[in-house]
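Throughout our pipeline, every protein is held as a single compact record rather than as scattered files. The record that follows is passed on verbatim for readers who wish to inspect the format.
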Amino acid sequence: MTGLYIALGVALLVIVVVVAIYNGLVHKKVRCEEAWSQIDVQLKRRYDLIPNLVETVKGYASHEKETLENVIKARNTAISANGVAEQAGAENMLTGALSKLFALSESYPNLKANENFAQLQEELTSTENKIAFSRQHYNDSVAVYNIDILKFPNNMVAGMFKFTKRDMFELEDTAQREAPKVSF
C-alpha cells in the first residue's frame, strides 16, 4: 500500500512539474507574440507616414523619381512581408530607402525648410525610435523564451507540446551596424 502512495505521489509531482513548465512556456510564447504585435503597430504607423512624406518631397524634388519609387516599393514590400526574417529584411530595405530620401532634403533647402516635411520627418524619427525599442523588447522576449525551451527539463515538455524556437529580429545589412561617420 505504501508503494502505491509513493507511486501516486511521484506521478502527481511529475504532472505538477509538467503543468508548471507548460504554463511557463505558454506565458513566454504569448509575451513574444505581444512584443511582435507592438512592432507591428509601430510599423503600421511608419507605413502610414511614408506616403505623406513622399508626396511632400514630390513637390520639391520631382526629378528624383527613382528615389521616391524605391521608397514606395520598399514600403509595399515591408507591408506584405510574412514572418520575422522576411519582415526584418524588408524593414532593412525600407530603412535604406528612407535614408536616401532624407539625404535628398540636403540638396533642396526649400524642402528642408518646409514645415510639413519637418513635421513628417520628426514623426518618422520618433516612430523609428519606437520601432527600435519594440524590436529590442521583442528580441528580449524571444531570448527568454528560446532559453527556456532549451533548458532541461523544459526541453522535454517543449518537445512534447511542439514549442519551437522563434527568430530574432536582426539587421541583415552590416552597414547599418557601423557607427555613422561625422565630419565637419
Observations:
- The chain has one domain: 10-169.
